[in-house]
Design brief:
The protein is built from seven helices and ten strands. By secondary structure, it is an alpha/beta fold.
Length: about 280
Amino acid sequence: MSDHLPKRAGRIELRDVAIHLPGKTRFEAVRHIGTRIEAGEFVSIIGPSGCGKSTLLNAVAGYLAPSGGSLRVDGEPVAGPGPDRGMVFQHSSLFPWKTALHNVAFGLKMSGIGRGERLERAAEFLDLVGLKGFADRYPAQLSGGMQQRVEIARVLINDPRVVLMDEPFGALDAQTRERMQQLLLEIWGRLKPTVLFVTHDIDEALILADRVLVMTHRPGRIREEIAVGLPRPRPADIVVSPEFIALKKRCLDLVQDEVRKSLIGGLEAARIELPVEA
């Protein structure tokens, strides 16, 4: 592949990335992460709690600086946040005093786009996420699923090459979550950004992704990369297909093994030697 990629690309390259986080004692959250995510690919990240999934996502977003290795998007080092990467979090970060329309338009305002143009484009993106007719509603007047739709529209309007999603549907009920998954796949199919999606839900990871990265317990490393060779579009009943069930079992076995290792490591670290009685 040529290194002279078009601006639209969105290729992510991690080479031997390590990330240390501050605290009472500085600790290593991520160790020796190396992978390449192709432009337009949809990749899910799963692993035990505390393994560094969100930490890795924040590093790609530019909110955290790696303490070792290199992290690049389209060949350029990630030196901080940028409009080429958009982040969607689990909990709403919408401005409560702004309507849905003005929340979506905010990024364009910061880029100096005129009022008329930015509001017109914001309305188009609200329509894209199925919220036509809700432009004048405030976040408190929207359901959790609707708020996440506004979050997604607010990110996509800036035309990012990379969309980073940190358990964006984790707080939603099962039916809303399924609808949001299908909406995300429809939008991704139309716009084709690179998507890096963190989730604890193995079904969700497999329904959405081209590839699943399974991380180890902390310090997080990539234990296995699993190609999801399921056809697209993926119907709702794909979860009962033999192929899906086999993939799910493989992911589940890996994650459970890492959870077990984490528990054993925690017990060994906490072990206290009792004094020997005289």
